[in-house]
Amino acid sequence: MTESQRLREYAAADPLRDLEAGEFTEEAATDHTVWSCVGNLTAVRSIRARVRDFLEGVQGPCEAVDDAELAASELATNALLHSRSGQVGGVMTLFIRSDRGCVRVAVADQGEKQPDGVGADGVLRESDGDYGRGKLIIESCTSRSGEYWTDSTHVAWFEIDLPGS
């Protein structure tokens, strides 16, 4: 990804860095990252890579990493196809959090709530068309998922329970 495509990146500080020996508590540490990118064709690939890198750093290679990468790819693709994030000047933001045996991934886009079956461009989607399969994919490889809207933002999210939790 070129510098012109990168808007900002935040990495979480090591949550255990300042603890003295013996100060470790039973509470699981939370690790997270937030990353915004230009909404273009390379964004989906970049988001997949960010999710994989983050989870392999937190959890190590496992089936949950593959599932999270696939589901994040669907969320990012939907953001490009169905919101202003996929238009010139559009932006989307990836949020990843790992906490107590669960990972939560969210993609925020520049979408507004539309009536069912109507895309961001105002066009009515046919029920037998090429739309709607992404939600089925997300539901099949995640533990929980959902979405919500604010005045100018749409956020789609999922959670996956990590092995051993």
TrEMBL record:
InterPro entries: Anti-sigma-factor_SerPK (IPR050267), HATPase_C_sf (IPR036890), HATPase_dom (IPR003594). Keywords: Kinase, Serine/threonine-protein kinase, Transferase. GO terms for molecular function: protein serine/threonine kinase activity. SUPFAM superfamilies: ATPase domain of HSP90 chaperone/DNA topoisomerase II/histidine kinase. Residues 40-143 form the Histidine kinase/HSP90-like ATPase domain. This is Anti-sigma regulatory factor (Ser/Thr protein kinase).
